[in-house]
Design brief:
By secondary structure, the chain is mostly helical. Helix content is 72%, strand content 0%. α1 crosses α4. It is elongated.
């Protein structure tokens, strides 16, 4: 799961060199990104080089550099690609009618994101902490914060003394448990989702009752 934007060192943004416009160019970029993903899964960071990625994608290194000036720019684009389903699921969860349904939707999305390609997700989490992706992290944090804020305004939301603190706590619980499960190499999505849901629901609704 993506990290929060708070507390990260501000650095120059990473961007692609050339935006694909034509269908052929878009297909080349997709081939490069998928090659990068598969090399991370099979060879880890040790084998994750631009030469290896270009070879797996069936393009020249020069063609790769037309779109990505360096490996970090390619990694940033891969993080964006792999995060897209998570963002879409977050938007869908935000439309749920109850607070609990929103929370369950967010948890399900985070677990699915981690478990769909677990080794890739684990390594991208590591790279995301290393790279200067402050602007992207801020956008991600704002989207999830907005979803949680809406959830806490629904009729069934728990009554908490400090809503903003509760929102940050929920995000931290989900992120921490999901990322830790990924780091341990867990593969049972259903079990992880059940644990995270119990942790979040227990924290919020027990707090409501003063337990």
């Amino acid at each position: 799961m993506t990290s929060t934007p708070r507390g990260k060192r501000r650095s120059a943004p990473i961007d692609v060199r050339k935006r694909p416009v034509q269908r052929r160019s878009a297909a080349t970029v997709e081939a490069i990104l998928e090659a990068a993903a598969r090399i991370l899964e099979s060879d880890g960071l040790a084998g994750y080089t631009t030469n290896a990625i270009a070879g797996r994608a069936g393009v020249s290194v020069g063609s790769l550099y037309q779109y990505f000036p360096n490996r970090d720019a390619l990694t940033a684009a891969l993080i964006e690609r792999e995060s897209a389903p998570l963002f879409a699921a977050n938007e869908a969860a935000a439309e749920a009618a109850t607070c609990e349904a929103v929370l369950r939707g967010l948890i399900s999305a985070a677990v699915a994101h981690q478990m769909q390609r677990p080794e890739l997700a684990r390594l991208l989490d590591f790279e995301e902490r290393r790279l200067p992706l402050d602007e992207r992290d801020a956008r991600v944090g704002e989207r999830i914060h907005a979803t949680l804020t809406r959830a806490f305004g629904l009729p069934d939301a728990p009554r908490v003394d400090d809503r903003q603190t509760a929102i940050h706590d929920v995000f931290a619980i989900v992120r921490g448990m999901v990322d830790a499960a990924g780091a341990r190499g867990e593969t049972d999505a259903a079990a992880l989702e059940a644990r995270v849901t119990r942790a979040v629901v227990g924290y919020l609704w027990r707090s409501e009752r003063g337990e």
